[in-house]
Prior knowledge:
By secondary structure, the protein is α/β, with parallel strands linked by helices. Helices cover 48% and strands 11% of the residues.
Amino acid sequence: MACACSTLGLSSLGFCRDLCLFRRPGRSRSRSAAPLEVMRRFFCRCAPAAKGSEWRKNRKTPVWLMRQAGRYMQSYRTLCEKYTSFRERSENLDLVVEISLQPWKVFKPDGVILFSDILTPLSGMNIPFDIVKGKGPIIHNPLREAADVDQVRDFVPEESVPYVGEALRILRAEVNNEAAVLGFVGAPFTLASYVVEGGSSKHFSKIKNLAFSQPKVLHALLAKFADSMARYIGYQADSGAQAVQIFDSWATELSPVDFEEFSLPYLKQIVDQVRQSHPSLPLILYASGSGGLLERFRLTGVDVVSLDWTVDMAEGRRRLGPEVAVQGNVDPGVLFGSKEFITARIMDTVAKAGSHKHILNLGHGIVVGTPEENVAHFFEVAKGIRY
Ligand code: CP3
């Protein structure tokens, strides 16, 4: 089975056995140097000059945090005073770049995620929305019928969100290969839940009403999102994203049998479509409250499953099997604890994940009000880990 490591003559160092996330069973396509770079810089955090045994000795668990840019940071809150609308902050090129780099400048994480939102593509699909302080996402005309779905346009990223491509290109240059630049998209079911509910939801009753009374209408919407998000991932990769995370935050609101009908096939469609056009792009899948669905996540074919904190890391790793890398999964609430507690929980998570195929992260995004110094402590401890 060929992979980037063997193509580049690195197999003898044992890189493949431990680290290559890109060996997929049944795939014999040899890969270019690009994923190796991603693997070295992001998944292994090795010093660029280190070679052989030095390299192995130095390797650490890569670390970045979901929502590492945002309201817990004073620099972001200061910027919010001048630029009061979230749409502006997330759709103006200069602001997107500046905000994405805010945590990079302070904490030097191994991954720098684009500052944007899973809902950003919606206006380009003819679904007007806003994100309102204190209320969250608002969809002005929720979609409930076949005629509404017919109005949804295919997403053409180069036309609708050219600033995303430009921002990723600038981020790559700014970060200068010292960290991986990450893109992201929303998964079809999660996007559908917002546009059908009209915003955030507690019981998901409107989308369940659609799913369980007019499934064909929901399937038509999900298929549109799947195709558009696969294209959006490709666009992000072409613009410089070195890995892309798919957020299916609300998939776990579905029973397993309904996940198999309304989420899994569309996640698979995205993964398959992206593999055709961008075979070496690492894909990460996140869902909150995912314990009941882990084995099914593996069926999507993603490289990395991002675990929320309700799953024990050791159990999650075992249930996902050796082919899949894991990300996570410290409770974001731990960042409200003492520094000693934060350190202990990081060590516990890393020990349970084992010394390879693990990206340290939280089990969900950083919560508003989290002390910045505790985030700094998290990164400091994480980056000091040696094996
Ligand atoms: O991780 C990062 O640093 C990248 C930034 C990012 C944002 N949204 C910025 C944002 C990412 C990855 C997202 C994804 C996203 N957006 C998800 C999936 C992740 C998850 O949380 O499950 C979802 C479900 C959304 C939809 C959404 N956008 C919600 C529920 C909210 C929160 C509303 C609120 O007021 O708390 C948003 C707004 C949003 N997106 C904020 C940020 C930093 C907060 C608003 C602000 O900063 O003004």
